[in-house]
Specification:
mainly alpha, about 160 residues, single chain
């Protein structure tokens, strides 16, 4: 159970909203102080690859949760430890996918501010979302989740 007594991890905010907030901030900064790193055609190649890989990984993660019958949104209870599909090699494939999508958008837009903001985004996700989720899952599923944590890496 979370600190609030609800059957959810009590994350600081919904992860898609966190990523969206950082995207908006990065584009706002770039509007005032535009910078360029890649330029065409490099930004399209790198950005397209990152974006595509992120969409595929995120879709696989969501689909695996749905097929297992557990909730995807962080404000809903987890019903089981899912360890198949992409969860066999990453405890957070949806978040890895979100980071790849974010990086793909940054590259496609040739917006270095988004890459700079990726560091605080990582820390918010790591400590405000993932750490809370892991505490919640350890408390709810005990030894089963601890064994899963020992076997599978957090990111990749």
């Amino acid at each position: 159970m979370s600190e609030q007594g609800n059957d959810n991890p009590g994350v600081v905010a919904h992860p898609p909203l966190i990523f969206l907030g950082f995207l908006i901030a990065g584009f706002a900064i770039d509007w005032f102080w535009p910078l360029s790193v890649f330029g065409p055609p490099g930004n399209y190649a790198y950005g397209g690859l990152l974006l595509g890989a992120g969409v595929v990984l995120m879709a696989l993660g969501v689909t695996t949760f749905v097929r297992a019958g557990t909730n995807v949104p962080t404000n809903r209870p987890s019903t089981m430890v899912v360890s198949n599909g992409p969860y066999n090699f990453s405890r957070n494939p949806i978040y890895v996918g979100m980071f790849l999508i974010y990086a793909g958008i940054a590259a496609l837009a040739d917006n270095p501010w988004l890459f700079i903001l990726a560091l605080p985004l990582y820390f918010i996700m790591r400590h405000g979302v993932i750490a809370r989720e892991e505490r919640y899952l350890e408390g709810k599923f005990g030894a089963a989740y601890l064994a899963y944590k020992q076997r599978v890496r957090r990111w990749l």
